Amino acid sequence: MTMLNKFKHVLRLTLLLPALMLSNQVIASVILQYHHVSDTLPSVTSISPKDFDAHLAYLKHNQFNVISLPDMLTQLKNGKILKDNTVAITFDDGYKNNYLTAAPLLEKYGFPYTIFVNPKLIDEKISYAMTWEQIRALAKKGATIANHSAEHVYLHQLNKGENKIQWQKRIKQDLEQSEQRIKQETGHNYRYLAYPYGEFNHALQNIIKELGYVGIGQHSGAVGIHNDFSRLPRFPASGIYANLKTLKSKLKSLPFNLKILENSEPVTTNKHPKLVLQLAMNDFNQSQFVCYVSGQGKAKLNWIATNIVEVSAVVPLKKGRSRYNCTAPSLDQKGYYYWFSQPWIITSNNL
């Protein structure tokens, strides 16, 4: 190798080193989920205008990188590193108070946002939903309009007398027709689906993948390049989760680099599901990895190998929705936590 070639080689390595270092960075990036912004509607899915303003003010004053959901997902799907402390803001159901109350506050702070809507319910002029005229007005101002299914039903459930092939056909028609209505009214065609009620199973995820959608749930956690894009997490920020003090810690969440090895089917009749995870352990200690079960406290951990853990509940899960939430403090980024959530829907019948 000539002296000139050696110099070029060293120069390439020098230029490449920061990129390699950057590729190993873990960035705090989360999606927030809201429903109502109201003082009068059901508290379980509402945040008051005052508290919503406080959320936005905190993001602004602490210089969070608030970007649109399309910007976030495009960068992540392309394997690009986001800026640290990145946030995307989303709303489910397209309530009128999103237009009347939430949108003016978001415009005040200059923040982009996404609203997941139910086109069939809008066409039927259901009382609580925005009109297409209102939705178009928000879209023209920069809001992203995306798919929440036609009429907000449990997509993973078979109708009475329906077989799985009929179910697949119905769900595909629902999603594609809903996407087409959104495109007709707004020009938006992002092919994002926020699962109604945050519920999904493997069969529904397979449809999402086949149709080229991104599937988005309501289970908590951070997002990163290693996420499964058929089950992206969001942090609910309404109701009991509207407390700014607890939200601050969630905004410092980091995405685990993990693989689910066994038992990730969310919809199950098994009240004692065991989840097996393989973890990249380079930025947290095994001893500080802990999981919690909804309404129970700490989960039981069985370390099969240094980086493989089996997670289970101490007592059987109750019928309905539950979660295993797993966290571990970062060694490199003080005050930040890795966060992963596995949702469960315990049913009495196989679907």
UniProtKB/TrEMBL annotation:
It is found in: Secreted. GO terms for cellular component: extracellular region. Residues 1-28 form the signal peptide. It comes from the Bacteria. GO terms for molecular function: hydrolase activity, acting on carbon-nitrogen (but not peptide) bonds. Keywords: Signal. Residues 85-351 form the NodB homology domain. It holds the Pfam family Polysacc_deac_1. GO terms for biological process: carbohydrate metabolic process. PANTHER family: POLY-BETA-1,6-N-ACETYL-D-GLUCOSAMINE N-DEACETYLASE (PTHR34216:SF3), PTHR34216. This is Polysaccharide deacetylase. It comes from Pseudoalteromonas denitrificans DSM 6059.
